[in-house]
Design a protein that fits this description.
605 residues; 18 helices; mainly alpha; globular; 8% strand
């Protein structure tokens, strides 16, 4: 029989199958080596050869050069990083550089104490040297402190914090609720700010996770966010009163709109703007363009006629101005809302005390006829207002001079609450003395009628009182809880006016903190009585002390303008977010318009 192989002599005979197999394998091996691409190149280094593909920019996790690498087509999305100080860089003979160094050391003392005794829990109990989980248990102090570390050049602590961020799952038991307002300003704001400064992707990823977990809070009939939300089940809780606090529903727009800008998720913008639509449509004729402090989650209408610039209202007015600033000064309808509200505050809630001529802002009840009945209570919380007024006066064209006058006068009063005490720290609340003619608007009218000579009334730096009976106020709450509002105003006034006296006032407060609030080996603590030297300390170190108080003091003493106010906007927890502008496709997708609804609060007189 003649076989197949006998007609194929070049392939060898049937008696040599192993040799043929080796030859075939060798031929195929040579083919793969010559004609196929290498397979040992890591996937993240491989660039697809698609004509329309543009690789994303390489963004360093910390500033290694200035300017940073060219971001190419993503340039409009990324703020240039500024050269930031390294620890010890300011150790010269310069007075303010050394003072900035002192604040950095105080921050390291506070944060290292937290890291030693409390991390990864929410806050440190400094007297007990123990942790507490009082805000969701996700490591609040770490998140709240990240951007402060970055601005101070504390990169090792920042990187250590990132490892904790990577492990956050935003989980909680089924019956628990994350307080929407606090979680937004502290956690979400902290993550977004740290991302804006460092560009570390894990921060944006976690911010998106948290925004998604908080989103069900907006699922009310009115669209106003509920008091709290379970980040696992999505169940929302209206709170004990069943009503929404105005400042809390108006203090999420910066964070959610910036998150929408970064992620392209339209629902973040839509939810935040729905709240603003409720405000634009509100009838405020009775309260004269001021927003009452309580609102119905069902109807989206006010539930009270109380108006305030302090608790339940403060950051709402702040965010009106800052929404306009954050979006590149394009959202003019919210800016106009701010201007109308401030006009009423200065006319109907701003007073001058009878003896020392201290300028102050208070809250009031409004009756059914629109008459205001003030309480003459001044809260430390209200001391944010000079910063907002000064920022608006420096950025809004043709703003009335009363805005900067009020900013100066109110900041003088807030500073006096510190300077008047033996400790150099401020009480949390005081009751101001008043007379029937105390409205600032009436004082201004008389001043102008008499020729407007000298400084306007209430805008002079007050002299120290001869004794406590001549202070023009009496303390209601003598405690000092490491609050930031006054030093925030000093910082903004320093940057907008260049007046060095605001820096000096801030240094006096910092020295008082070092004397009265510092715990030797466990951070800082609130004090029970600002009127008693070496007062009993409270077993608490709120995260805002690291996020706000020490950050503003550091920026106040830093000669370099680390956070230019024309490029960055601070949220109400002092987390800076970069100014941006919506692109045309974003405006179309999100329905962004500057049109003011007819008959709305900003349309009616």
């Amino acid at each position: 029989m003649v076989t197949f192989f006998q007609h194929q002599p070049f392939m060898g005979t049937p008696r040599r199958p192993i040799l043929r197999l080796v030859l075939i394998c060798l031929v195929f091996g040579i083919f793969f080596v010559v004609f196929m691409p290498p397979t040992d190149t890591p996937h993240f280094e491989y660039t697809p050869h698609f004509p329309s593909y543009h690789p994303p920019p390489v963004i360093p996790s910390r500033p290694v050069s200035f300017p940073p690498p060219d971001p190419g087509p993503h340039r409009h999305r990324i703020r240039p990083q500024r050269p930031l100080p390294e620890p010890g860089a300011h150790r010269t003979d310069d007075l303010w550089a050394n003072r900035a160094d002192a604040v950095r050391e105080a921050f390291e003392h506070a944060y290292n104490s937290y890291a030693r005794y409390a991390a990864p829990h929410d806050e440190l109990l400094p007297l007990a040297k123990a942790p507490i989980d009082n805000f969701n248990g996700w490591g609040l102090t770490i998140v709240d402190s990240l951007d402060t570390m970055w601005l101070m050049g504390l990169y090792e602590q920042f990187d250590s914090g990132l490892s904790s961020i990577a492990n956050i799952t935003f989980s909680m038991p089924a019956g628990s609720f994350a307080p929407f307002f606090e979680t937004v300003i502290r956690y979400l704001g902290g993550l977004l700010s740290a991302y804006a400064l460092s560009h570390d992707p894990i921060l944006l990823s976690r911010a998106d996770d948290l925004g998604n977990a908080l989103y069900p809070a907006f699922n009310s009939t009115s669209g106003l966010p509920a008091y709290g939300v379970n980040t696992v089940t999505g169940n929302a809780w209206a709170g004990w009163s069943g009503h929404a606090v105005w400042s809390e529903v108006l203090t999420c727009q910066l964070e959610f709109k910036y998150l929408a800008y970064l992620t392209g998720r339209a629902r973040y913008y839509t939810a935040a703007e729905k709240v603003m639509e409720v405000m634009y449509a509100a009838n405020l004729s009775l309260t004269r363009d001021l927003y009452p402090t309580g609102w119905s989650l069902t109807t989206g209408l006010p539930t009270t006629r109380k108006v305030s610039v302090g608790s339940f209202a403060d950051s709402g007015y702040e965010y009106m101005l800052k929404q306009w600033l954050l979006t590149g000064r394009t959202d003019t309808k919210v800016r106009d809302l701010y201007l109308r509200s401030v006009d009423t505050i200065l006319k109907h809630l701003t007073y001058v005390s009878p003896t020392r001529k201290l300028l102050y802002v208070t809250d009031a009840m409004v009756d059914q006829n629109g008459e205001f009945f003030p309480t003459h209570k001044l809260e430390h919380l209200t001391c944010f207002f000079p910063a907002t007024l000064a920022l608006g006066a420096a950025t809004i064209p043709d703003v009335p001079p009363t805005h900067m006058w009020a900013a100066r006068g109110l900041a003088y009063t807030c500073g006096s609450l510190y300077a008047d005490t033996p400790t150099g720290l401020s009480p949390d609340e005081v009751n101001m003395e008043a007379d029937a003619d105390g409205l600032w608007s009436k004082h201004l009218a008389r001043w102008e009628k008499n020729g407007a000579h000298g400084d306007p009334p209430g805008v002079q730096a007050p002299s120290p009182p001869e004794n406590e009976t001549l202070r023009d106020y009496s303390p209601l709450n003598r405690g000092y809880i490491l609050r930031p509002e006054t030093v925030e105003s000093f910082y903004i006034l320093w940057r907008t006016t260049g007046d060095i006296t605001w820096r000096e006032r801030g240094w006096n407060i910092f020295e008082a903190l070092q004397r009265e609030s510092r715990v030797e080996d466990a951070g800082f603590a609130s004090v029970d009585n600002a009127y008693r030297v070496n007062s009993t300390k409270r077993n608490e170190m709120p995260s805002w002390f690291l996020a706000e108080t020490l950050k503003y003091l550091f920026l106040l003493f830093s000669d370099e303008d680390l956070v230019p106010l024309d490029q960055w906007v601070f949220n109400t927890e002092a987390h800076p977010l970069p100014v941006f502008q919506w692109s045309e496709w974003e405006k179309e997708r999100y329905g962004i318009t500057n049109a003011i609804p007819t008959g709305s609060a900003v349309d009616s007189e």
